[in-house]
Design brief:
Length: 283
C-alpha cells in the first residue's frame, strides 16, 4: 500500500520523544479499545525498553464491552496490564487515577528509600493520533489543560501537565510509524479516525467495513439503515443502504461516495452502537 501517511513533523516528534524517555518513570500508552492492535505503534517497543508500561484501552464506551473484557484477559495472559476507560467519564477516570497514583506512590517511595530524595514521578502519555491522549490527561488532571479535538494531529508539542504534588504527565503528539504496509490496519485506523479518510479510498473502506459487519454485527447495520440482505457482498449492501436512504445521483444510480461517508460518520459518532473492529486472536 503506497500512501503518504507519515508527515514530516512526526519524525521530529519521535526524536523528541526518544530524548524525553529518560526523564520519565512510566509510559502510559493509549490505544483505541475498538482496535487495540491496529492502534499499537510498533516503534514503541524499541523506544520504551526497560520502562514500566501500562496500556489504556480508551474510548471503551464505544467499543463492544464483551470484546474489551476479552482484550484485558488477552493482554493479562502476556503479563501486560491493560485498563479500559472512557476518558470523558469522570467517575471512570477517577478510578483509573487512583490506580495510577498507587503505581506513582511506589516509584515515589522507591526513590526516597534508594536515593533519599523526594522526586516528582513522571509519566509519558503516548499513542497514535486521535486516540484520546489529551482527553485522558485532562480527565486525570481534573481540568482542561491540554487541547483536544476530534481529528488527528491536534497536539503538536510535548507538554508537561501537573496532576498533583508529586505526579506529572507529559502529553505528546500522536505518533505513527513510517511505513504502512497492512491494508486492514490502515482501514481500521480510518474507521477509528486515527488517520484521515482522504488518504484512502472511502468506498474501499466502506466495503471492507460492511464485509466485517455482515458477519460480526449485522443487527447494528439493519437497526440503523433498515432491512437489508446481509448475505450479500459488501458493495451490494452499500448499494442497498444508498437506495434505502435515498442517496441517489441525478440519473438514479446509487451515490456510493455519499453512502460511504455516512457509514463512516455513523460509526465514528457511535450511532451504530458499541462496536469493536478487532477481537483477540484465538488461543
Ligand atoms: N467516546 C469517547 N471519545 C473520546 C474519549 N477520549 C477522547 N475522546 C474524543 O476523541 C477525540 C480525540 O481526543 P484527543 O484527546 O484530542 O486525542 P489525542 O490522542 O490527544 O489526539 P492528537 O493530539 O491529535 O494525537 C476528541 O473528540 C475527544 O473528545 C473516550 O474515552 N470516549
Ligand atoms: Mg492530543
Amino acid at each position: 500500500m503506497n500512501i503518504n501517511w507519515y508527515p514530516g513533523h512526526m519524525a521530529k516528534s519521535k526524536r523528541l520523544m526518544a530524548n524525553s524517555v529518560r526523564l520519565v518513570d512510566m509510559i502510559l500508552e493509549i490505544r483505541d479499545a475498538r482496535v487495540p492492535i491496529s492502534s499499537a505503534n510498533p516503534d514503541f517497543d524499541d523506544l520504551f525498553t526497560h520502562k514500566y508500561r501500562m496500556i489504556i484501552l480508551n474510548k471503551s464506551d464505544v467499543a463492544d464491552p464483551t470484546i474489551t473484557k476479552d482484550w484485558v484477559d488477552w493482554f493479562s495472559m502476556q503479563g501486560i496490564k491493560a485498563i479500559p476507560v472512557n476518558s470523558l467519564d469522570s467517575a471512570e477516570i477517577s478510578r483509573l487515577k487512583s490506580d495510577i497514583k498507587k503505581i506513582a506512590d511506589k516509584f515515589h517511595r522507591e526513590t526516597i528509600e534508594k536515593k533519599g530524595i523526594r522526586k516528582v514521578v513522571r509519566g509519558m502519555v503516548t499513542g497514535i493520533p486521535n486516540v484520546g491522549k489529551s482527553a485522558f490527561i485532562n480527565g486525570i488532571a481534573g481540568a482542561n489543560k491540554a487541547k483536544t479535538g476530534n481529528k488527528p494531529g491536534v497536539t503538536r508539542i510535548n507538554q508537561w501537565i501537573r496532576v498533583d504534588s508529586y505526579l506529572e504527565l507529559m502529553d505528546t503528539p500522536g505518533l505513527l510509524w513510517p511505513k504502512l504496509d497492512n491494508r486492514e490496519v490502515a482501514l481500521n485506523l480510518v474507521f477509528s479516525r486515527t488517520i484521515k479518510e482522504e488518504i484512502l479510498d472511502i468506498e474501499e473502506a466502506a466495503h471492507y467495513f460492511l464485509e466485517k459487519a455482515k458477519n460480526e454485527f449485522p443487527e447494528a447495520i439493519t437497526a440503523r439503515y433498515g432491512k437489508l440482505d446481509m448475505q450479500k457482498k459488501g458493495h451490494e449492501i452499500l448499494e442497498g443502504i444508498c437506495y434505502k436512504k435515498g442517496w441517489i445521483k441525478s440519473k438514479g444510480a446509487p451515490d456510493f461516495k455519499r453512502g460511504s461517508k455516512h457509514l463512516l460518520g455513523d460509526f465514528q459518532q457511535g450511532r451504530l452502537g458499541r462496536i469493536s473492529l478487532e477481537s483477540p486472536p484465538e488461543a
